[in-house]
Write a structure and sequence with these properties.
Elements lengths: L1 H19 L8 H16 L3 H50 L2 H29 L6 H4 L1
Helix pairs in contact: 1-4, 2-3
Length: 139
C-alpha cells in the first residue's frame, strides 16, 4: 500500500509540473503595446494626445508584465529543480532500503507512471485543441 501511495505521489508531482507549463508568447513588449493601443484607439476613439499617452502606459505595463513573467518562470524552474533534487535524494535513500529487485521494480513502475502521465497530458491537449470527439457524441 505504501508503494502505491508513493507512486501516486510521484505521478501527482510530475502531472502538476507538466500541466503548469504554458506556451511562450512570442510578441515583444513593444508589439503587444502597439497592438493594444491600436485597439484602444479604435474602440475608445482616442485623440492623438491620448494615443501617445496610452501607448506609453501600455508599453510600461507590457515591460512590467515581462519582468513578472520572467520572475515566475525562474521560480517555476527553481521549484522544478528542487523537486527533482528531492526525488533523487529519495531514490538514493530508497535504494539503501530496498532489495535490488524491489528497487528495479520501483524504478520501472515510476517510469511507467511518468509515461502514463505524459500520455494523459498529450490526450488532454488533443481534446483542448478540438482533435478529439467527446464520448457523449460518439454514441
Amino acid at each position: 500500500m505504501k508503494s502505491k501511495t508513493l507512486i501516486l505521489a510521484i505521478v501527482c508531482v510530475f502531472s502538476t509540473l507538466a500541466y503548469s507549463q504554458k506556451p511562450n508568447n512570442t510578441a515583444t513588449a513593444e508589439q503587444r503595446a502597439t497592438k493594444m493601443t491600436a485597439k484602444m484607439k479604435t474602440d475608445l476613439d482616442l485623440s492623438a494626445s491620448q494615443e501617445t499617452q496610452v501607448k506609453q502606459i501600455n508599453m510600461d505595463a507590457a515591460k512590467r508584465n515581462d519582468e513578472i513573467t520572467k520572475q515566475s518562470k525562474a521560480q517555476q524552474e527553481s521549484t522544478k529543480t528542487q523537486i527533482q533534487n528531492s526525488e533523487s535524494k529519495r531514490d538514493n535513500e530508497l535504494q539503501k532500503v530496498l532489495t535490488p529487485e524491489q528497487f528495479s521494480k520501483y524504478t520501472q513502475l515510476k517510469t511507467e507512471k511518468k509515461q502514463e502521465a505524459m500520455q494523459q497530458k498529450s490526450d488532454k491537449k488533443s481534446k483542448q485543441s478540438g482533435n478529439a470527439t467527446p464520448a457523449s457524441k460518439q454514441n
